[in-house]
Amino acid sequence: xxxxxxxxxxxxxxxxxxxxxxxxxxxxxxxxxxxxIPTMAFxxxxxxxxxxxxxxxxxxxxxxxxxxxxTYLTKQIAIRxxxxxxxxxxxxxxxxxxxxxxxxxxxxTVRFDEHELRMSPLELQxxxxxxxxxxxxxxxxxxxxxxxxxxxxxxxxLLYCKRLEIDGSRWI
Amino acid sequence: MDLDEFKKRNRExxxxxxxxxxxxxxNHPDSDWSRQQADFIDSVMKR
Lengths: 172, 47
Fold this sequence. Notes:
The structure holds two protein chains of two kinds.
Chain A: H1 2-7, E1 14-16, H2 18-23, E2 32-36, H3 42-54, E3 58-59, H4 65-72, E4 79-83, E5 85-93, H5 98-105, E6 108-112, E7 115-119, H6 122-132, H7 135-148, H8 154-163
Parallel strand pairs in A: 2-5
Antiparallel strand pairs in A: 1-2, 3-4, 4-5, 6-7
Chain B: H1 3-27, H2 30-45
């Protein structure tokens, strides 16, 4: 939450992947939290990186901000942000595919206690987990579906599945 | 039982629990399931 508070001072963001399921009760651990941020100019990223460093965070990939931008982010490779320890860390990347951009554009806001987090739309999240396809991913997707099925648009999930060229109907 | 069938059943059994737990989360107070979730995650992190 601390890292999110800093990132949102500089840019939009969306939390994707396993942490969404864990926040809603899935009983598993994770070594990272996945975040997509919009593609941005170096000057914007530099200010963000400086803010993170001055608040005690570090980058696991490199100490050099230019290197983080040129060698990682703009080459579609995620960077990882930690504080004191390497695990858990925040994995941050620019959108690589249209659906990641869509997750950013259509993010939902989850409010709990005094906090707010922007998360991938659940229909998209569930379809994407089916697409990733490991046991862990499918279980994450089924968990989310079971928790929210009364309020989810199943057809929308299946449409996202179709865009990802998979058959989601076997799971939900 | 052949290995493909074994793998399929194993996945179905795991999904049965995922659905069981999702139902538990929906039908119990947040303080109940989140305590169990926290205890589980803490126990893994301490190993």
